[in-house]
């Protein structure tokens, strides 16, 4: 079978190739799946970089979420059958024509959920749901701050919050060009962190001389993969008044536009801009940036806030956690989250989250745009796009015969 194989650690696509490898066979409690679509994730990039804990041995086949049809069931598997449409969280190996999965992490896909969307559920959507509910203890009406808001998980969080009762959503992104994508994913306000967070910018409200995306658009779907990598470019935009939208988002007399102008003038007050957008403190922070923005998270946290640390996108060394005194004085909780660890220690919680997001999609309560990547051959370019921080939203690779 064809599979995407990483032969050793690399910062680029030079050690990734498509190869023929042996098909897996299911052991006890396992199934194999003919993969229709496989989700592409930043975790694949962290594996490719050789970040500690992601690859047990090279060569390595990445891919932790798939949708397809059951090919074969292993001994002891009674609730799944060959030909059944399923989505599965895998421990790797998903970017291949046939993937191995634990039955405990494989769930049926309800009718009407297409395979490219189902393939985005086991890791991305289940993580977003678990981040909000289990780790973050989100309650309807709360204010949520999400870093890397325009990416896969960031966009998924914005689309899930309304289905969980709604809340105020504030996102940060790594570059000004991603602000529009965060807003179109559903964020009420989005701010660009400039190189770890010193000059915040939001389109339409920056002071003269600030760097800004040259468009008055807001609310347009922007889903693009770099044409330079030979992949289709698909960008749609709708017109709108971003400054007005952000002022409206700030609500209740808070002058976010003024706050951001002041922040840009002062050059360093990202926390001030976020608090202005929040209309006060933030109840829940979802942070995949290691500890790079942890001080900021604490600065904007409302009393009783939860800060969930769930990644280390930059890959660097992490700073010590905040002092107990700082946490105690604000009644602030700092929580770690890893869906991979949870899948090992409590697979039923991952499977339950996966079932719930698939049901929300089937019921029309959750809409997840996915950029389809035409084949395994195009995946290395998408990994590179993600590695360079240029991805927007979710990507899933077409591997076999899709279902809809
Ligand atoms: N713990 C878990 O269980 C779990 C599960 C799923 C995902 N994650 C983590 O959640 C994050 C989002 O995952 P995703 O798959 O949806 O990816 P993504 O957001 O589509 O892409 C990763 C984003 O990380 C940001 N980033 C920050 N520093 C970076 C650097 N040095 N190089 C490249 N990108 C950098 C970029 O966004 P900005 O520039 O806008 O910040 C980039 O777009 C990742 O960090 C991932 O590891 C964790």
Automatic annotation (TrEMBL):
Which Pfam families does this one have? Answer: ADH_N, ADH_zinc_N_2
| Organism from which the protein derives | Microbispora corallina
Positions of the Enoyl reductase (ER) domain: 12-397
For this entry, the protein name equals Enoyl reductase (ER) domain-containing protein
What keywords sit in the KW lines?
A: NADP, Oxidoreductase
Domain of life of the organism encoding this protein: Bacteria
Q: Which SMART domains match?
A: PKS_ER
């Amino acid at each position: 079978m064809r599979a995407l194989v990483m032969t050793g650690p690399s910062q680029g696509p030079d050690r990734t190739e498509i190869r023929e490898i042996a098909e897996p066979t299911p052991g006890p409690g396992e199934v194999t799946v003919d993969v229709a679509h496989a989700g592409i994730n930043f975790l694949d990039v962290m594996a490719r970089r050789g970040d500690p804990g992601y690859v047990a041995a090279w060569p390595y086949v990445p891919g932790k979420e798939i949708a397809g049809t059951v090919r074969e069931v292993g001994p002891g598997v009674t609730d799944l059958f060959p030909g059944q449409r399923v989505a599965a969280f895998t421990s790797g190996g998903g970017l291949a024509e046939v993937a191995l999965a634990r039955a405990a992490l494989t769930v049926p896909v309800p009718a009407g959920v297409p395979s490219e969307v189902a393939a985005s559920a086991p890791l991305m959507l289940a993580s977003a749901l678990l981040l909000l509910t289990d780790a973050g203890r989100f309650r309807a009406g709360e204010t949520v701050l999400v870093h890397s808001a325009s990416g896969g998980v960031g966009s998924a969080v914005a689309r899930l919050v309304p289905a969980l009762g709604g809340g105020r959503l504030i996102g940060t992104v790594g570059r000004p060009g991603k602000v529009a994508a965060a807003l179109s994913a559903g964020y009420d306000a989005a701010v660009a962190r400039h190189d770890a967070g010193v000059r915040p910018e939001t389109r339409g409200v920056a002071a003269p001389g600030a760097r800004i995306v040259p468009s008055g658009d807001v609310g347009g779907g922007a889903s693009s993969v770099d044409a330079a990598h030979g992949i289709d470019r698909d960008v749609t935009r709708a017109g709108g008044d971003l400054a007005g939208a952000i002022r409206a988002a700030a609500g209740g007399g808070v002058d976010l536009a003024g706050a951001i102008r002041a922040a840009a003038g002062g050059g360093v007050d990202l926390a001030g801009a976020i608090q202005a957008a929040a209309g006060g403190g933030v109840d829940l922070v979802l942070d995949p940036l290691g500890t790079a923005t942890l001080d900021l998270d604490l600065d904007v946290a409302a009393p009783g806030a939860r800060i969930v640390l769930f990644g280390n996108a930059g890959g660097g060394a992490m700073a010590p956690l905040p002092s107990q005194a700082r946490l105690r004085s604000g009644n602030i909780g700092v929580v770690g989250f890893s869906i991979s660890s949870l899948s090992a220690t409590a697979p039923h919680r991952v499977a339950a989250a996966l079932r719930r997001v698939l049901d929300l999609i089937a019921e029309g309560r959750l809409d997840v745009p996915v950029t389809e990547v035409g084949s395994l051959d195009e995946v290395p370019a998408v990994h590179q796009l993600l590695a360079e921080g240029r991805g927007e939203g979710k990507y899933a690779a077409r591997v076999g015969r899709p279902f809809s």
